[in-house]
Design brief:
Layout (H helix, E strand, L loop, with lengths): L1 H19 L14 E11 L7 E15 L2 E16 L6 E17 L7 E18 L2 E23 L2 E14 L7 E14 L2
Antiparallel strand pairs: 1-2, 1-8, 2-3, 3-4, 4-5, 5-6, 6-7, 7-8
């Protein structure tokens, strides 16, 4: 939890620093060569279980605008779910760690000067899943393919920085016959900055 808070604070500071260089006008038509950096985080806990289980994740991506409003890049994600079992004073801890890496493409819509900018995003993930029990690795799976598609909205705070909210659909396909395909729908909040204009 402390690591998550530290990373979220770092993303917030990055956004504030970018704001200091921002301008009062908005531009959704980014020129070719503009670099886009973004970060987002999710956190979930089970209140009915006395906070003994939680799920959190962070994503950061780096992309380059190849054409106005169209960018391509790469996304890096890290997530962990934790569940405590047994004695509350000395619990057994079961953890699942998921790491992802994959390409992304982005298309931003709307007028040239707009405070709100809709966007769509798509790509694929190479996934590494690890299962740990009391900090000892029990299982590791590196043979899954994840497909990602999302729609979102960028709220431009200044010319070069904005806040995002997006609904993301994930489909993870197991490569073994006995693997179970999983589907997820996530709502993600983040910050996005643009460099090079």
């Amino acid at each position: 939890m402390k690591k998550l808070m530290t990373l979220l604070i770092a993303f917030a500071l990055m956004g504030m620093l970018t704001l200091s260089y921002g301008q009062t006008s908005y531009s959704t038509s980014r020129i070719s060569g503009t670099i886009m950096i973004s970060g987002s985080g999710t956190y979930q806990t089970d209140l009915s279980q006395d906070l003994r289980s939680s799920l959190w994740g962070i994503n950061t991506d780096l992309a380059l605008f190849l054409f106005p409003q169209f960018a391509a890049g790469i996304d890096l994600g890290y997530g962990k779910s934790m569940n405590q079992l047994g004695d509350p004073d000395d619990p057994d801890v079961f953890e699942v760690v998921t790491m992802s890496l994959g390409p992304r493409v982005y298309f931003f819509m709307g007028g040239k000067y707009s405070e709100l900018t809709p966007f769509i995003k798509g790509g694929a993930n190479y996934l590494v899943n690890k299962t740990l029990y009391n900090d000892e690795e029990q299982n590791r799976d590196e043979s899954e393919l994840g497909l990602v598609a999302s729609v979102g909205l960028l709220l431009n705070l200044a010319k070069n920085v904005g806040l995002t909210v997006e609904a993301e659909y994930n489909f993870e396909k197991g490569t073994d016959v006995n693997d179970i395909d999983t589907k997820q729908l996530l709502v993600k909040f983040g910050i996005r900055s643009f460099l090079g204009e």
